[in-house]
Amino acid sequence: MALVVAKFGGSSVADKDRVMNVAKIVTDTYKSGNDVIVVVSAQGDTTDDLIEKAKEINKDASKREMDMLLTAGEQMSISLLAMAIEKLGFPVVSLLGWQAGFITSSAYSSARIKKIKTDRLKKEIDKNNIVVVAGFQGLNRFDDLTTLGRGGSDTSAVAIAAAMGADICKIYTDVDGVYTADPRKVKNAKKLEAVSYDEMLELASLGAQVLNNRSVEMAKKYSIELEVLSSLEDKPGTIIKEKVEMEKCFISGVAKDDSVARISIIGVPDKPGLAFKLFSKLAKNNIDVDIILQSIGRDDTKDISFTVTKENGKKAVEIVSGYLDVIGGQKIKYDDKVSKVSIVGAGMQSHPGIAAKMFEALYDKQINIQMISTSEIKISVLIDNKDADCAVASIHDKFFSES
Amino acid sequence: MALVVAKFGGSSVADKDRVMNVAKIVTDTYKSGNDVIVVVSAQGDTTDDLIEKAKEINKDASKREMDMLLTAGEQMSISLLAMAIEKLGFPVVSLLGWQAGFITSSAYSSARIKKIKTDRLKKEIDKNNIVVVAGFQGLNRFDDLTTLGRGGSDTSAVAIAAAMGADICKIYTDVDGVYTADPRKVKNAKKLEAVSYDEMLELASLGAQVLNNRSVEMAKKYSIELEVLSSLEDKPGTIIKEKVEMEKCFISGVAKDDSVARISIIGVPDKPGLAFKLFSKLAKNNIDVDIILQSIGRDDTKDISFTVTKENGKKAVEIVSGYLDVIGGQKIKYDDKVSKVSIVGAGMQSHPGIAAKMFEALYDKQINIQMISTSEIKISVLIDNKDADCAVASIHDKFFSES
């Protein structure tokens, strides 16, 4: 007998038919002899609808009251799912975040889980109940309701799996697993049987938004095996765990991120400390910088280029402009018609030919590389936006069709 | 500086404009130098909508899960009202039933308040916060959410007023007070300045559904002064308290109840114990009997008549039919085209002419009285349904127009 934690997102419980479908999946798992804890998000658009309602009354409502409002969303979905499970004739109990023991930091709207007091969860499991828990929410030291921020239900599920020593944490969603590339764009994209935590983290940060990153980090920390799978089709998904058997192609996936913009500062004097000053200034303004490239000095000046999210683009340009005198740059270039294309794979650490193969795929299509960034398990290139889909397809073919 | 508890029903917070209106009333009360605790119901049709949603999934959902679902309704209304109060620039905090310290019995869907732990309420008042509390809900000894049943928010408000020693408990609603008769039916109906707890209890049980009876009983028990007033018009309502200055007319109001049915058992042998057996049998089946009339025996048989609610009518007839052999009755008559018309007033205790005056009003209109029932502060008659409105008007004129 295993303990299974199963998490269902808002779209999986969007209407009564989907709620009944989830009840079926959950009770089938229970019938197979498992203890089951289910973590659920608010139904469909409930959270967005509640935010809209709040804005109509007060655009600047306090985060405390927003959390009070939003946590009602999961309260409704857990009770409805519990009723559906009752309807199928199984013993069930729904628990709010605080009833399930979620103690969080006091930061409303973006609280962190501090611990889970598992007494109640254990008691309900001992009574052979299927336990339905409200994701995304907890209680802070003031006895007030908090939320974990968007995607927090994934984190709730992994945290319960860790606290209860679950055998597996299944994340049911509207895709059926993690793919080697976006299956809507790349027709040969293949579903991965398994992927490592680190690869998944890199893939998630690249826009393959299957799983919330905090949940993967937590799963890695506590060695919780995850499975991403579809709530609408009964077939295996993708397992996420520490060590994954290497496949021939050495990489796990190709991802594209269109949300980036590039800023270049031309003609910066070649003196030490300038880069440090510039990036400290941006960090102080809460602007995360991703790829950084510094050209080798021509004459006694150099060029510094870096990427930020498009969202932060304008603000970053303003800050750099106001700082241009200090660092002594000549002019600023801004380009938001760029994309970051990346390959991720633990295999590349021991196979130096991977980068070359990626660049070859781009050369095949005559695509110009603007910037390159590498980490132990990732290689990213910045290219023109219009070439991005073609680049992903070409790289994907190079690695996956030849193998 | 006084402590005011103000309660607003679902229709008073039905949409964003009404929520802002309530915020205005509450902050005006606060600005006048009062501490304010606000008790709110779920918005408009929220509760009914949630019940509908539950039924679509499971018609026989457990009461525990129904309470889990329904309590989300007030959670949304308290946070939205708190946001509206924030918008007006006042310090505010919303509290769920359990946060406000409501400890209830464990009977889901009809829990009784056992006590209120006032620590949190006191702390928030000490911080000069306006406190917005979710009505209708509490927590039982299993740490599970409970509801107090329909109309429970009135009871929540009175219980807080009692526990906190409030100076007054204002019940805001969509009528502007308690009237001498239904103002939609009787054009000379007058708003009462004040009425006693006992009179209010009788009026409420007669279908003048202004206030939930449990809340009036509790107000009487703890001597909490109530005021029923409109949330849409800024004018005084009706005060409900222990002793009310007697007005000339001696009665407080005339009320009509159409929800009754009469059952008569004809030809019951005149032996002791039969009435006891019959009404025990009905009580065991949870059927409340209201007026009972037993005719003086003709020959050696008698007739027993009683009223039940229309809702219970069919079931009561079935029970009595199956029991007819035991009590030896000859036949059963059932009539649900009847109404109960009553006058209520503490004044009648010392003025024996009141009943005669009521009967005279009926005689004036040639209305036949089927049954009569009297208590210390109430006289009820059962009459034909079609005469009821005319009877109320005639009685009302007799007492209030002549005075």
Major sheet summary line of chain A: 8 strands, mixed
Which quaternary structure do these chains form? Answer: homodimer
Fraction of helical residues of chain A? 25-40%
How widely separated are the two ends of chain A?
A: 39 Å
Per DSSP E runs of 2 or more residues, the count of β-strands of chain A stands at: 20
Structural class by helix and strand composition of chain A: alpha/beta
- Reading side by side through the largest sheet of chain A, how are the strands ordered? 3-6-2-1-9-11-12-10
Average pLDDT across residues of chain A?
90
Name the chain pair whose interface involves the most residues.
A-B, 38 and 38 residues
- Report the uncertain regions of chain A: none
Question: Approximately how much beta-strand content do the residues of chain A carry?
Answer: 25-35%
Shape descriptor of chain A: globular
Number of helices of chain A: 11
Radius of gyration from the alpha-carbon trace of chain A, in angstroms: 24 Å
Task: Describe this entry's structure for a reader.
The structure is a homodimer of 403-residue chains. By secondary structure, the first copy, chain A, is of the alpha/beta class. In chain A, 36% of the residues lie in helices and 26% in strands. Chain A is built from eleven helices and 20 strands. Chain A has helices at residues 16-31, 46-57, 63-87, 119-126, 152-164, 197-205, 213-221, 274-284, 310-327, 353-364, 388-401, and strands at residues 3-8, 35-40, 92-95, 102-104, 113-116, 130-134, 137-139, 145-147, 168-173, 194-196, 226-230, 238-241, 253-257, 260-269, 292-294, 301-309, 331-335, 338-344, 369-375, 378-384. In chain A, the strands form five sheets. Chain A has an eight-stranded mixed sheet, with helices on both faces. A four-stranded antiparallel sheet of chain A has the order 13-18-20-19. Chain A has a four-stranded antiparallel sheet with strand order 15-16-14-17, with helices on one face. In chain A, strand 4 and strand 5 (113-116) form a beta hairpin. In chain A, helix 1 (16-31) crosses helix 3. The longest helix of chain A has 25 residues, at 63-87. The first copy, chain A, starts with a strand and ends with a helix. Chains A and B meet through helix 1, helix 2 and helix 3 of A and helix 1, helix 2 and helix 3 of B.
